[in-house]
Structure to design on (637 residues):
């Protein structure tokens, strides 16, 4: 078991744990939660032996093997599958010793090492590594690519696969879902449910925690409290305790009174019926959850547009994609005020392509996109975080879009996003990904949109901010289109789902459980079909087979050229970004005299990263098309 007794842990002047107690038994699966900066990652470092306690005891069985998900990549030249296999350190040691023994023609050592290799499941290691990679969304072709060829998010997937590959009695995972799409998250859930060792998991995804863990360890006020059950059970238990406090009660009653007043006023009005229903749902959730989050630092709403048009957007007979590459076709979508749509679909199917087209960031290849006269779009995407002015503070960012507003009004608004006091005036240069995402959302919320287009808005956000965003979206009366791997956000803020798959956008008649089942069927359909035995007496038309194979080979050529062209362009972008990042690493660049040069470099970086995202998506689509055609060709020959 793991036992922390009277533990004190300090980093610099900050005391993270003081007199903390925690006992975990072998095989337990525990979610570790707490505010950002509370010490969760430091506790992981302690368990891994990378950090020592300042007082008390930290006991872990000496023979336990510990696996963890690294946050950095230290080699770019390894092939992806080899990089994952490197996670099994003992396997690599045996293989290295075996190579030496074979070169020395030491038969005794060779026999012994082959036995050790068998005991370490070495003969199945390559297949197991490929199965992990496939579950995390890698194609067979990608498994043979260099680590350096992948973007940062896909490198984190490789680090996750490497951690899962490592035989262990204790597995430490820090935000493993941050760079995963929904289908990869569902696969990871099943894998972790079957993991036989002790799991400690840091995550801001409440549905993921509910599915995987059987206990929650809450780090709060330098103490660790263990709750039985998943995250929802933790919320209920903690709410029961905090609801006794007068402060929690008063805040909850104020929120309830506000929502009930709105419902009573607008429930009978047809034009406000959807919004009233949204408040009813929020009210139902508020009864159970608000007391558990009384100490949340976030409290904001999306300021709503004074004018509205119907429809807001009208997309008809549209073909969407990049350059000559079509991703989606015959797309028809009309967005009315109050529409609340979640986009579902496998990785690379075109969800982000659709969002970018609706936002105007991507031009139509064909068809028509009509915009309402009073359309006001609030668009959130991850690449926008890199477009923030690194030298400007949150207050200055907001002053630029609201130059006539009182400073105190802007400060009060930013306070709802937990930018308070000196933090409101600090440049965003050293802000975390979560802080940048909160600022980007604050800028959108201020500008009174009547249509929100949100592409993975919860990436980097902690549990409290995710809940605040969910509540703000429930209060928002405009239209919402969201792509998210956070199932709780999707369930709580959308009324209908659209399925983006197989080059089409169609209504999805079902819930997220139905979608999980759809994904299983989709993967089965995507798998190359085996050659079925022909019934007795049935003759195969060999000439027709040869003609079909020849036609497929002709189709392969242009797709191969397109994939090679995109790969070359992507490599060039990576090289340019590397040069820019080296220049941005020069501390002298941030002197006042060079502010124009810094602004230009940051603008170039933002443009290149946007193009990198577009080219990478188009390249992955081209590779997928190639693989499908190749599979058809192999089946026909």
């Amino acid at each position: 078991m793991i036992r922390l007794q009277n533990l004190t842990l300090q980093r610099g002047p900050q005391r993270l744990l003081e007199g903390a107690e925690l006992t975990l038994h072998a095989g337990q699966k525990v979610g570790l939660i707490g505010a950002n900066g509370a010490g969760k990652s430091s506790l992981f470092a302690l368990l891994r032996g990378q950090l020592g306690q300042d007082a008390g005891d930290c006991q872990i069985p000496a023979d336990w093997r510990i696996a963890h998900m690294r946050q950095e990549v230290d080699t770019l030249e390894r092939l992806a599958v080899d990089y994952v296999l490197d996670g099994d350190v003992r396997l690599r040691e045996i293989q290295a010793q075996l190579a030496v023994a074979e070169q020395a023609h030491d038969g005794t050592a060779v026999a012994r090492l082959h036995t050790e290799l068998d005991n370490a499941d070495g003969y199945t290691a390559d297949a197991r590594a490929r199965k992990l990679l496939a579950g995390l969304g890698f194609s067979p072709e990608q498994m043979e690519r260099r680590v350096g060829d992948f973007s940062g998010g896909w490198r984190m997937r490789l680090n996750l696969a490497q951690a899962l590959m490592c035989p262990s009695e204790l597995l430490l995972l820090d935000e493993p879902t941050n760079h995963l799409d929904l289908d990869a998250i569902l696969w990871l859930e099943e894998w972790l449910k079957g993991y036989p060792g002790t799991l400690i998991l840091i995550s801001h995804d409440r549905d993921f925690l509910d599915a995987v863990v059987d206990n929650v360890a809450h780090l709060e006020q330098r103490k660790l409290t263990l709750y039985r059950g998943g995250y929802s059970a933790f919320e209920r238990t903690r709410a029961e305790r905090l609801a006794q406090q007068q402060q929690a009660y008063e805040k909850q009653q104020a929120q309830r009174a506000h929502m009930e007043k709105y419902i009573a006023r607008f429930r009978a009005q047809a034009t406000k019926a959807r919004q009233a229903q949204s408040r009813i749902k929020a009210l139902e959730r508020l009864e159970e959850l608000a007391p558990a989050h009384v100490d949340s630092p976030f409290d904001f709403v999306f300021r709503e547009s004074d004018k509205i048009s119907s429809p807001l957007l009208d997309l008809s007979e549209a073909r969407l994609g990049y350059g000559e590459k079509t991703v989606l076709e015959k797309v028809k979508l009309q967005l009315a005020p109050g529409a609340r749509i979640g986009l579902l679909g496998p990785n690379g199917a075109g969800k982000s392509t659709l969002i970018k087209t609706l936002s105007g960031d991507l031009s139509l290849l064909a068809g028509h996109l009509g915009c309402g006269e009073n359309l006001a779009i609030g668009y959130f995407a991850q690449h926008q975080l890199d477009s923030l002015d690194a030298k400007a503070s949150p207050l200055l960012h907001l002053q630029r879009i609201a130059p006539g507003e009182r400073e105190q009004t802007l400060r009060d608004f930013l306070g709802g996003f937990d930018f308070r006091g000196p933090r409101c005036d600090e440049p965003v240069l050293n802000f975390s990904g979560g802080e940048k995402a909160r600022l980007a959302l604050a800028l959108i919320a201020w500008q009174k949109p009547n249509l929100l287009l949100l592409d993975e808005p919860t990436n980097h956000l902690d549990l409290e901010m995710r809940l605040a965003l969910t509540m703000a979206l429930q209060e928002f009366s405009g239209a919402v289109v969201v792509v998210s791997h956070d199932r709780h956000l999707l369930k709580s803020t959308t009324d209908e789902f659209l399925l983006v798959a197989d080059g089409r956008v169609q209504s999805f008649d079902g819930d997220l459980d139905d979608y999980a089942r759809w994904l299983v069927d989709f993967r089965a359909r995507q798998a190359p079909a085996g050659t079925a035995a022909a019934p007795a007496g049935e003759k195969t038309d060999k000439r027709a087979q040869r003609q079909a194979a020849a036609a497929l080979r002709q189709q392969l050529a242009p797709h191969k050229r397109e994939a090679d062209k995109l790969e070359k362009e992507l490599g060039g972008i990576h090289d340019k970004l590397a040069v820019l990042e080296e220049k941005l690493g020069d501390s002298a660049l941030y002197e006042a005299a060079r502010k124009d040069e810094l602004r230009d470099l940051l603008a170039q970086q933002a443009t290149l990263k946007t193009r990198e995202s577009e080219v990478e998506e188009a390249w992955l689509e081209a590779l997928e098309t190639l693989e499908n055609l190749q599979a058809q060709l192999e089946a026909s020959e």
The chain has 21 helices and 18 strands.
